[in-house]
Write the C-alpha cells for this entry.
Amino acid sequence: MDRQIKNIVILTGAGVSAESGIDTFRSAGGLWEQHKVEDVATPEAFARDPDLVLRFYDMRRERIQQVEPNAAHYALARLDAEWSGNLLLVTQNVDDLHERAGTKRLLHMHGEHLNAWCTACDVRHGWRGTLIDRPACPSCGISGQLRPDIVWFGEMPYRMGDIYHALNRADLFVSIGTSGAVYPAAGLVREARQNGIATLELNLEPSHSSSWFTESRHGPATELVPQWVD
Ligand code: BJW
C-alpha cells in the first residue's frame, strides 16, 4: 500500500459474504429474485404483513449463525489490527462476519440481523432466536413490538454523520463487494472523489458506480482482498 496513505474508509457489501454462503441481493438467484423488495424490506410491508416479514428475517437470522467468515473478512481484520492510522470499515452487511473475523473499527450502516429493536421503548437487544412468536421486550415487557434492527428502504441508514466525518479526513476510499445500487452508500465514492482522494473498487464485476473509481480490480473477494491487504 502507498506509504502516503494514513486514513482509510472501507465500504463493504454482500459480495464480501457471498463466499461464506450468504446470498447477495441483486445477483442471479439472489434474494431479490426470490422475494419482492417491496414485500419484505420496507416499513409499509411490515405494517401490511408482519408475519411474512418476520418469517423472512427469522430465516436469515438463523442462516447467518450457520456460516463462517472467509479470507476476505480475515484480511480486513488483519488490516484493522495492524493499521496505525485512522481506519473505519463501514459495512452495509447485516451479518456479523466482520466482527467474528476480528474487525473492531466497524460500523453497520444498514443494521444487524442479530439485534432486535423494540418500537415501544426504542431499546435494541442482541437477538439470536425468532421474532415471529411475538416475544416480549426484555426491557419494557411489551409483547409484539420487537422488529428486526434492519434499515429498510425509505429509512435513514445509521451513523451517516460518523461516516461522512471519517470520509472527509480519509485519503483512501475502498469499496468491496457492493453493486453500488443502493443510496446513500453508493454515493460515498462521489463524495470521496470530490475530496480528491484515491478510490479503489474490489468487486466480482464492474458495479453501477465503477466509473467513479480511480482504480477497479475484478474477481472474487477472497482473492482480491488478501492480495490488496498483504
Ligand atoms: C462479489 C462476489 C464475490 C458477488 N466477491 N464480489 C438517491 C439518493 C439517496 C437515496 C435514494 C436515491 N435513490 C433512491 C433512494 C432510496 C433508496 C435507494 O437507494 N434505492 C435504490 C434501489 C435506488 N435508499 C434508501 O431508501 C435508503 N435510505 C435513504 O436513502 O434514506 C434517506 C437518506 C438520503 C441521503 C442520506 C441519508 C439518508 C435505505 C437503504 C436501505 C437498504 N437496505 C437493504 C436491505 C436490508 C434488508 C435485508 O437485508 O433484507 O440493505 S437493501 C440491500 O441492498 C441491503 C444491502 O446492504 C444493500 C446493498 O446491496 P449490496 O451489498 O451492494 O449487494 P448486491 O447484491 O446489490 O451486490 C453484491 C455485489 O457483490 C455485486 O456487484 C456482485 O457482483 C458482487 N459479488 N459475489 C466479490 N465472491
The chain has a mean pLDDT of 96. The pocket of BJW is lined by residues 13-15, 18-19, 24-27, 30, 41, 92, 94, 110, 150-151, 153-157, 160, 177-179, 181-184, 203-205, 207, 220-221 (CB under 6 Å).
